[in-house]
Write a structure and sequence with these properties.
mainly alpha; 4 helices
């Protein structure tokens, strides 16, 4: 594959994941929060609903933003590559290297959220059971989302590094 095909594949995957996984997952979490308040009363329902609304809104906003910005981002990168491929790589490679470093941090962050969820789930208050379960779910979703993104980013970053030449 040539570089433009790799760039297209990376951003196509980003857009598809955002539009067809992240946004629907955000909507699903908001729906779970609504259902929790409709079918249950008390602490457990609120322990489920509030974090579902929060995480759902975050995913909905993030997914929509990524899906809507991707076409313009692709066009700009392609134009930049055609104008001056060396300058484009010098700018894009550090950005992608930072993205890749962030995956390591988010891996541990989602692990900490899952661990917090397990701990909170076993506290004696009813709302903690719901909150703990949603924290575990949110961590799992985050790991899944980043799992796909990390693999895409690795291929794209490698292509940028090959264009950059030996350092």
């Amino acid at each position: 594959m040539n570089f433009i095909e790799i760039l297209d594949a990376y951003f196509r995957g980003e857009k598809l994941e955002a539009a067809f996984f992240i946004v629907p997952t955000g909507l699903m979490l908001i729906g779970i929060g609504i259902v929790a308040l409709k079918v249950e009363k008390g602490g457990f329902a609120w322990g489920v609903a509030l974090p579902c609304f929060l995480f759902g809104a975050i995913l909905l906003i993030t997914g929509t933003t990524v899906a809507l910005r991707t076409n313009a981002q692709i066009a700009e990168l392609k134009q930049s590559y055609e104008r001056d491929s060396v300058a484009m790589v010098k700018e894009e490679l550090p950005r992608m290297q930072a993205v890749n470093r962030n995956f390591r941090m988010t891996f541990f962050m989602f692990g900490a959220i899952a661990l917090a969820g397990i701990i909170v789930h076993y506290l004696p208050w009813d709302w903690c059971r719901g909150l703990g379960a949603v924290l575990i779910l949110a961590a799992a979703l985050g790991l899944l989302i980043d799992g796909f993104a990390e693999r895409r980013a690795g291929t794209y970053t490698k292509a940028l590094e090959e264009l950059n030449g030996p350092t």
